[in-house]
Design goal:
single chain; Ubiquitin-like (UB roll); 2 helices; elongated
Length: 67
């Protein structure tokens, strides 16, 4: 089982209705979803936060931090 987790969801994240935890059956699907979420957050959100993505043991974690 592969996961995508979002740490410290901001109000833009909540307003967009994105899930902070998702499970996937393949690593490729989890990676694709994590990259898709990162792109959406970097282009559509309010630009008051920085986003970073890490992968460890099949778990992709997106960190949201204030600028």
């Amino acid at each position: 089982m592969y996961k995508v987790n979002v740490m410290n969801p901001c109000s833009c994240f909540v307003k967009n209705g994105l899930a902070d935890t998702q499970d996937f059956s393949t690593k490729e699907a989890a990676q694709a979803e994590a990259k898709k979420m990162m792109e959406k957050m970097q282009t559509a959100f309010c630009q008051r936060h920085d986003f970073s993505l890490t992968e460890q043991f099949g778990t992709y974690t997106i960190f949201i931090r204030s600028r």
